[in-house]
Amino acid sequence: MNYLKSIFIFSILFSVLSITAVAQQTEEDVRSMLEERDEEIKELVGPEGTTYTDEQRATLKEIINGVIDFEAMAQEALAETYDTIATEKREEFVDLFSTIVRDQSLNNLDIYRAKVTYTSIEVDGNQARVETLAQLENVRTPVNYELRFEEGQWFITDMEIDDVSTAASYNRQFQRTIAQNGFEDLMERLRKRAARA
């Protein structure tokens, strides 16, 4: 009886500690994570006209994408179709999706030189939304993030650039292809795009 009681008390204590760990996450924690990431990227990107080795590009790709939850973003991009496909297909889809997004993240490195101003940070438990303005020369672009706190770290689950959601943008493309030609046609297109990455 004492053993069972101890297990019960431990379970409650563990739950309370877990909730407290999430509750202790603040706006400053989220901002610090994003600022550190931004500084790392800016240091590697360097001034305009900088050339990069393959190793530097690989490092940049990892820092830019290392805090993105590609599974969550891919699930949002595929919407209801995600729940209708087999586990193996889901895993392949997430892998292809992440390969494509990671590759596109290096298409225009100038955007990472922009000065970032944080206009709003809201934390609600293990969810957060961050709104920023990125200014490059005279152009100001809203860049917003949806984040989730998991396993002791904040992960980006979606990004909005100029009020356009990354997941929603892909969702429109994917659903159009699925409606016209089916899911397998979408997968074949993604395989070809990922192969070129």
SSE map:
Layout: H1 2-23, H2 27-45, H3 54-65, H4 70-78, H5 87-104, E1 115-124, E2 127-136, E3 139-150, E4 153-161, E5 164-165, H6 166-181, H7 183-196
Antiparallel strand pairs: 1-2, 2-3, 3-4, 4-5
User: What's the CATH architecture name?
Assistant: Roll
Report strand order across the widest sheet: 1-2-3-4-5
Q: Tell me the quaternary state.
A: single chain
CATH H-level homologous superfamily name: Tgt2/MlaC
Overall strand count: 5
Keywords: Signal
Signal peptide: 1-23
InterPro entries: MlaC/ttg2D (IPR008869), Tgt2/MlaC_sf (IPR042245)
Protein name: Phospholipid transport system substrate-binding protein
Task: Describe what this molecule looks like in 3D.
Strand 4 and strand 5 form a beta hairpin. By secondary structure, the chain is an alpha+beta fold. The protein is built from 7 helices and 5 strands, in the order H-H-H-H-H-E-E-E-E-E-H-H. 56% of the residues lie in helices and 22% in strands. It has one domain: Roll (Nuclear Transport Factor 2, Chain: A), CATH 3.10.450. The chain has a 5-stranded antiparallel sheet with strand order 1-2-3-4-5. Helix 5 crosses helix 7 (183-196). Residues 1-23 form the signal peptide. Keywords: Signal. Pfam families: MlaC. It comes from Gracilimonas mengyeensis.
